[in-house]
Amino acid sequence: MKLTVNGTVHDVDASPDTPLLWVLRDHLGLTGTKYGCGEALCGACTVHVDGRAVRSCVLPVERLQGRAVTTIEGLSPDGSHPLQQAWARHAVPQCGYCQAGQIMTAAALLEEVPHPSEAQVDRSMATNICRCGTYLRIRAAILDAAGES
Amino acid sequence: MRSTAFLLPLLAAVTSCSSAPAPAPADPATVEAGHKAFAHLVEVLRHPRCLNCHPDDDRPRQGMHQAVHDPPVWRGPDDRGEPGAHCASCHQDRNATDARVPGAPGWHLAPLSMAWRGRSDAAICAQLKDKARNGGRTLDELQQHLAEDPLVGWGFSPGHGREPAPGSQAALGDTARTWIDAGAPCPPRGEPQ
Ligand code: FES
Ligand code: FES
After folding, report:
1. From the CA of B97, how many Å to the nearest CA of chain A?
2. Is A47 in the pocket of ligand 1 (CB under 6 A)?
3. pLDDT-based confidence at A148, cuts 50/70/90?
């Protein structure tokens, strides 16, 4: 089936019910998107579909016909997205495992609400888990990228 | 029975300003059948599979114990979750078999105007008939919603060992039809929860 990821159309030979996460990682070699729980509980696998954040571990690839998938690799060609720059300024990651999902969720938030309040950030990011506890730096970087700090 | 019959015209008068018009009440046996139908209807609506997404606050519930949704999510501005964390970010158009995440087309919370949690049967009945609080539906449209909306239908096929709402969606539609055809009678106000 045809799958558009980061602006490129791919021909993918996968069972229609394969979760998008495994097509990204195993078929297309896009390993920036991580596997955490496989049950839509942690957010590590977050990507965008038509600009909206989705959990790729529970999204059957057959639902993506004619839709545009963006992964962390496609967020900006050179890591220059305002969130990626703010992430570097605030030295957000610790182990890094959750960070692609955090940034993709944050990017979807800023797409909808360019200048979120602290409370809005907390609510929108609440379902993205970081075992290293980088939550305060995540919040600071998002507010910084949004010009709110 | 006598007190119920006495209250019917009063209830009709109370709700007539904003309610969808109901057919004129029929003979006592039909009205009684209407009350029985509503009792069954509300038993379904009160089942956690339905009630969990009709909260009276901004937090969906989950499970038979109606715990606050975990992971932590909120209603959001359009009842579809917060920006970046929409209901559809996780809930697909069908139940996810391996991941066990429940899903149906258009997964979202019922608006606050349709909150059932913590309400009496009489209050739920009045809400169902009130176009200002039932999504602008006539009674026929309400029946159609109950009988055909796939999100309502999910309650009877919730997947992964979850206890379904009692009966079937078709039976719910039939029950709603019986209730409406009997004049959509409501229980008297003040009856126990
Ligand atoms: S791996 Fe998808 S939400 Fe955890
Ligand atoms: S940085 Fe380690 S899990 Fe988030």
Report:
1. 9
2. no
3. confident
Q: Does residue B127 sit within a domain?
A: yes
Instruction: Give CA–CA dist B184/B174, Å, rounded.
Output: 13
Burial of B173 (0-12, 13-18, 19+ CB in 10 A): middle
- Give me the domains of chain A, ranges plus CATH numbers: 2-75 (3.10.20.30), 82-148 (1.10.150.120)
Q: Which residues of chain A have a CB within 8 Å of the CB of B100?
A: 39
> Domain total for chain B?
1
Residue B35 falls inside a structural domain: yes
In a domain, B20, yes or no: no
Cβ–Cβ gap A52/B100 under 8 Å: no
Dist. CA B62–CA A41, nearest whole Å: 14
Q: How far is A59 from chain B (nearest CA, A)?
A: 7
Q: ipTM, 2 decimals?
A: 0.94
Span A51-91, pLDDT tens digits: 999 999 999 999 999 999 999 999 998 999 999 999 999 99
Residue B126: domain span = 30-181
Task: For an interface test with A, give the residue of B57, B89, B94 to mutate (most A CBs within 10 A).
Answer: B89
In tens, the pLDDT along B131-168 reads 999 999 999 999 999 999 999 999 999 999 999 999 99
For residue B19, is it within any domain? no
Q: Please give the number of the atom of ligand 2 that sits closest to the Cα of A132.
A: 2
The predicted pLDDT at position B18 comes to: 44
CA–CA separation, A44 and A11 (whole Å): 25
How is residue A23 annotated by DSSP?
A: I
| Residue of A127, A128, A130 best to disrupt the B interface, most CBs of B under 10 A | A127
What is the DSSP annotation of A36-105? S-SSSSS-TTEEEETTEEEEGGG-BGGGGTT-EEE-GGGS-TTS-SHHHHHHHHTT--SS-TTHHHHHHH
Q: Global pTM?
A: 0.89
Give percent of chain A above pLDDT 90.
98
Q: Nearest bound ligand to CA A33?
A: 1
For B97, the closest chain A residue by CA position comes to A58
Question: Would the CB of A35 count as within 6 Å of ligand 1?
Answer: yes
Q: Which atom of ligand 2 is nearest to the CA of A96?
A: 1
